[in-house]
Amino acid sequence: MSDVPYDVQDIRKDFPILAREVNGKPLVYLDNGASAQKPQVVIDAVTRGYAEEYSNVHRGLHYLSNLATEKYEGVREIIARFLGVKDVEEIVMTSGSTEGLNLVAYGWAMPHLQAGDEIVLSVMEHHANIVPWHLLRERQGVVLKWVDVDVNGDLDPQAVIDAIGPKTKLVAVTHMSNVLGTVVDVKAIVAGAHARGVPVVVDGSQATVHGPVDLDDIGADFYAITGHKLYGPSGSGAIHIRRERMDEMRPFFGGGDMIRHVHKDAVEYADPPMKFEAGTPNIVQQIGLGVALEYLMDLGMENIAAHERALRDYTRDRLDGLNWLNVQGRSAGKGAIFSFTLDGGAHPHDISTVLDKKGVAVRAGHHCAGPLMDHLGVSATCRASFGLYNTRDEVDKLVEALELCHDLFS
């Protein structure tokens, strides 16, 4: 935990976009669940990376290539430290969670699963942790087994464990719902699945943003993160893969950098993690991600979590005072994510448009969570998702804008 007091007004100064206006109103950015804004240190690192330090990595012996390689590979160590991983070589660099989860699908699951084998997953999953498994269903006859959430939006770990049968070969679960904010006890799920000999892949895209994680403690076989939600650049991310699972995987992408030798009649692959990192990577983006993670660790993930818990509680109290607002997900320990609809049938797209006129940015739609929308019985919701720089004053502005929506649409 950082020794520096958490001063949200001071922190906001690190994010230049928060000083701008939208439609003549101060920007209230509540779309952090989709992508978070970037602090100046990340913007500076990306600018410097392209303007002063750019070169390809791993292949050159000149100064710029060595500098880029040193910075790029240093990010692997930063990610490992951020995630609580002791073995740096278990970190595979990716363009984000989607690539990481597809790497698991093609590199591990495809050669290990046959027709009739099962994948257990929750109804809360983001499409990034659904569609890769549907591809296996379509192409190999794999069966998807779904576990529902309860009325509060909580996922019972035992329900996931109980869904594991003799044909189950993988459990795929989110650590935190991007729609409901529900935090899942993935450690309990991992322990139960491992007791039955089944590996677990966790989508950590949301959870790692809002508080500390310790992957060596959780014990998941695969854990994916994405940089653009972690206040880093788009096109950056990583997946943690246990070494024993790496040994069971075949490469997903083929090309330069992931090979040791290539001949006309044979190829010898590099050792992991390079075995899974083909071609020129998103060099500058990954360097920016490293700067973003160091920024978060300097603030203290525990401090960020405490700030967001207080913001969640304040938001919940304010929204509960609007008896015409329907909030989806009432998990007691949820994160600061609120998905909602209004009585009267106003479409979330219309609601978000009115909010935007007041400078309040929220997301409207299915949030890449089709099965959860079906489970909730809605086609779409508005979602206000909070980050480390949001304030109570911004919550009040959200409520004021929602009251305007109610007046317009009721």
TrEMBL record:
Q: Which UniProt keywords apply?
A: Pyridoxal phosphate, Transferase
The Aminotransferase class V domain is annotated at 28-398
**Catalytic reaction list:** (sulfur carrier)-H + L-cysteine = (sulfur carrier)-SH + L-alanine
GO MF terms listed in the record are: cysteine desulfurase activity; pyridoxal phosphate binding
For this protein, the record's InterPro entries field holds: Aminotrans_V_dom, Cys_dSase_SufS, Cysteine_dSase, PyrdxlP-dep_Trfase, PyrdxlP-dep_Trfase_major, PyrdxlP-dep_Trfase_small
Q: State the needed cofactors, names only.
A: pyridoxal 5'-phosphate
Q: Which CDD domains match?
A: SufS_like
- A biological process term (GO) from this entry: cysteine metabolic process
> What EC number(s) would the UniProt record show?
2.8.1.7
Q: Does the keyword Transferase apply?
A: yes
> What is the uppermost EC class here?
transferase
Role: Catalyzes the removal of elemental sulfur atoms from cysteine to produce alanine. Seems to participate in the biosynthesis of the nitrogenase metalloclusters by providing the inorganic sulfur required for the Fe-S core formation.
Hey, which family's this protein in? Belongs to the class-V pyridoxal-phosphate-dependent aminotransferase family. Csd subfamily.
**PANTHER family xref list:** CYSTEINE DESULFURASE, CYSTEINE DESULFURASE 1, CHLOROPLASTIC
From the Swiss-Prot or TrEMBL record, give the protein name.
Cysteine desulfurase
